[in-house]
Amino acid sequence: MLMRTDPFRELDRLAQQLSGGATAGTWSKPNPMPMDAYRSGDEYVVLFDLPGVAPDAIDLDVERNVLTVKAERRPAPVAEGVEMQMSERPLGVFSRQLFLGDGLDAERIAASYDNGVLTLRIPVAAQAKPRKIKIDAAGNEARQLDA
């Protein structure tokens, strides 16, 4: 199972609750690294939207079942003498952390990046998969079988 945490999002949510919620005309800051996650068979698939981020500007680390994704969106090169009129796209280093449950195999995470989407495939660990137990009626002993 994947567990996510974003302390700043939690602080924003708490501040919003304490202030009585958003009012008309209030803009919330968009998440610069939106994510989807789902389970497909014996793996979890996590997708991060990272438009405008070069593949070499993405860093993945796993330490003590915490997966950290860092990405840097750099300013687009502009010709000399060009004056910026509007800049709304967030720039800089962004990071997200996912807490990986003990039932996931953090050693075999696979990552790919295509069209601005980072895809992580996290397999379920073999010891976490369901197993059938065969009951030996003659000796009243149980043996474990791999499913």
TrEMBL record:
Residue span(s) of domain SHSP: 26-138
Gene3D superfamilies according to UniProt: 2.60.40.790
A Pfam match: HSP20
InterPro entries with a match to the protein in the record: A-crystallin/Hsp20_dom, HSP20-like_chaperone, Small_HSP
Family per similarity comment: Belongs to the small heat shock protein (HSP20) family.
This protein's name: Hsp20/alpha crystallin family protein
